[in-house]
Amino acid sequence: MSTPTTDPAVDPIVVEIVQGTLASVEMEVETAIARTSRSPMIRDAHDFRAGIHDRQLRKLTGRSYSALVHPVARDFPLETMKPGDVFFHNDVYESEGGIGHLPDLCVTVPVFHEGEVVCFVQAFGHHDDIGGATPGSMPSAATSVYEEGLMVPPIKLWDQGVPNEAALRIMTRNSRMPESLAADLDAECSACLMGAARLTELFERYGRQTVEAAFQAILDKTTETYRREILSKIPDGEYVWEDYAEHDGVDEPKLHTQRITLTKTSTGGPGDGPKITIDFTGTAPQAKGPINHCGDYADGNFLKKWLAPILRNLADTPERMGELDVNEGVVPLIEMKFPEKGTLLTPIFPAPTNARTFVILRLLGVLAGVIAKAVDGKMPADQETIRYTGVYGKDRDGKDYLMREVLGGGAGGRYYADGEDTIHVVPDSRNLPTEFTESRFPFLVERLGLAVDSGGPGRYRGGLGYEKHIRMLKDANFMSIADRSILACWGVKGGKAGRPFEVCIDPGGPEERYVDALADAEPVKAGQVIRIRTTGGGGWGDPLERPVEEVERDLRWGKVSFEGARRDYGVVASGTKEDPVIDAAATEQLRAQLRDGRGEEPFFDRGPGYAQLAGGATSADVDWL
């Protein structure tokens, strides 16, 4: 593989044009997929993303994380590729760490200029069903990847513009939703081919030397920006923290540890500048159930770009944070050290992986936590922003249906602001529209709003999660792939943990029951309600320092109850939600009592659920500064 031809004198205006074109093409590809796909998960929930990579397999765009081109280039040398080729894979263990579970299907299209591959357009998304033991291809009790669906290593799905009908037929035959799968794949392939054509035009306009020089300048700028503005904020030293997944679907709930030892040095990075080392030693053994993630491939290339957005919280202002892209330019600044094979992050084939979100989402929080120890807490508190819920059964016409959505949760409080409500970690993803689901599936959405009191108390409150009520019109089965139902999103520097995930069937009815967060086929009768409450983000700072007027505002907005205001913030109020009346004297007295009644507290608050799994301990050794 040849190295790119670079020109240090490339015009900065051309660099801006090239960077803008890349962003525009990426957005155009995503828009085309959204408008031409069929499944609710892709079209409506927008659980997919596109990326553009150079011929060195480096990610050039920074709007979203993406899969890797490495497995395609490994199996298909670039010199054998032809215009119109489309490559496909979803095999977790053959993806070099870029695919986490089998429902994530990835298509890759090479871009050509004067007969040579010059870059790649790629899209991957979470599809409704690729076979396996349960509808949706995410069996919560799987003990082997073979139970999770059809595995496809990198193949040529289109050959010079001609689809491989045999391969498509095999894939759709293994899916419970063949029409949706076929339509989604066609949308993704066509959109990436369109994106490739757009990029070919860019090369034709400026020439390969100039465009590749611009690519290098884009990545170099990212490296320099993070080195100067971000890594400089972390004092040199070694910092350790850990967090946990709570269950794996097979064993009884326990603490599945994910540990990071972060080392910051002022030398050793690009140009002998600063770098950080992320060492995962101390991470728990691989689980029997499907919460494992194959992170130790391609030197952790995927995980470096997955975790790097957390670093942006160290930017000087929130506005600056929003300007920082995460592309391949961050990779040289980060070294990763993995434990031996056989851990949650280094699983051995054929360990199951369909619920690997429990691990990779937790790692975002572990990195935020370990950096918080280094910077006196100036990082957001914890959040848990992905869980899969849904129902399946027979629709009004007696046909099989599957409705599944990714519901977000509250973001963590920050040292300067409350956490945002009901966010989704995938850019532009969202809950399914009520109008669409009620017209297509046999249920009614009776409520969709904020889960009151779910945000962790703090000087800056954690964001609120969803509360959703679904009334089934026909007998069905409820399914859930979720974590944080025992352990909560942690609070930091005096902030308290948010409220965990919770599902109740027939609330207030004769068959009221709470459902485990990992459920494949929980029966629900016609007429019964499913109540889903998603996680609230952790709080930041002492909740007794939250100004009374902000608590009063939360009461008016319905984000905090009168009971919660008293219990969590020491604010005594009466009246109504529309017109709360604060008793200032009683508030001052109660806050004084609450302060006097508490002892020394750890830097992190994990919530009451931690003691259930930690033998009664209320904090871990690493929770103290």
Give a brief outline of the structure.
This protein has 625 residues and is of the alpha+beta class. Helices cover 27% and strands 21% of the residues. The strands form 6 sheets. Strands 1-4-3-2-5-6 form a 6-stranded antiparallel beta sheet.
**Using only CA atoms, what is the Rg?**
25 Å
Low-pLDDT regions? 1-6
Sheet with the most strands?
A: 6 strands, antiparallel
Strand composition percent: 15-25%
Percent helix:
25-40%
Q: Quickly count the helices.
A: 14
Mean pLDDT equals: 96
In total, how many beta strands? 23
Strand ordering within the main sheet: 1-4-3-2-5-6
Distance between the termini: 48 Å
Q: Structural class, from helix and strand content?
A: alpha+beta
Shape: globular
InterPro entries: Hydantoinase_B, Oxoprolinase-like
Protein name: Hydantoinase B/oxoprolinase family protein
Organism: Ornithinimicrobium kibberense
Pfam families: Hydantoinase_B
Q: Care to describe what's here?
A:
Mean pLDDT is 96; it is low at 1-6. Helix content is 27%, strand content 21%. The radius of gyration is 25 Å and the shape is globular. Strands 1-4-3-2-5-6 form a six-stranded antiparallel beta sheet. It contains 14 helices and 23 strands. The protein has 625 residues and is α+β, with helices and mostly antiparallel strands. The chain has helices at residues 12-36, 40-44, 70-75, 165-173, 178-206, 208-230, 301-307, 318-323, 357-374, 434-440, 548-557, 562-569, 584-596, 609-613; strands at residues 48-54, 86-89, 104-113, 116-126, 155-159, 162-163, 237-245, 256-265, 275-279, 334-337, 388-394, 400-406, 443-450, 466-472, 476-481, 491-492, 502-505, 513-514, 518-524, 529-533, 573-575, 580-582, 604-605. It holds the Pfam family Hydantoinase_B. It comes from Ornithinimicrobium kibberense. This is Hydantoinase B/oxoprolinase family protein.
